[in-house]
Fold:
Amino acid sequence: MPRISHPEQIGALLAARRKALDFSQADVGKRIALSQNRISELESLPGTLTVVQLLKLLDVLGLELQVDVPAL
Structure:
């Protein structure tokens, strides 16, 4: 599982998964009630993602969020 430490990595991960599933930005947008332009923005500027939008995107793309506590 990839380790995410920068917002740009989230955008790249979401775009790569969307493309792997052969979904267009419009397809994803329709599934979560966002425009194609907003999906494009979220992929290129993921710092604008809300937690709700992130969780919806992860669900549509068959991904899940996991938070780990690193060993000390």
Remarks:
- The radius of gyration is 12 Å.
- The longest helix spans residues 7-20.
- The chain has a mean pLDDT of 93.
- The domain at 7-60 is CATH 1.10.260.40 (434 Repressor (Amino-terminal Domain)).
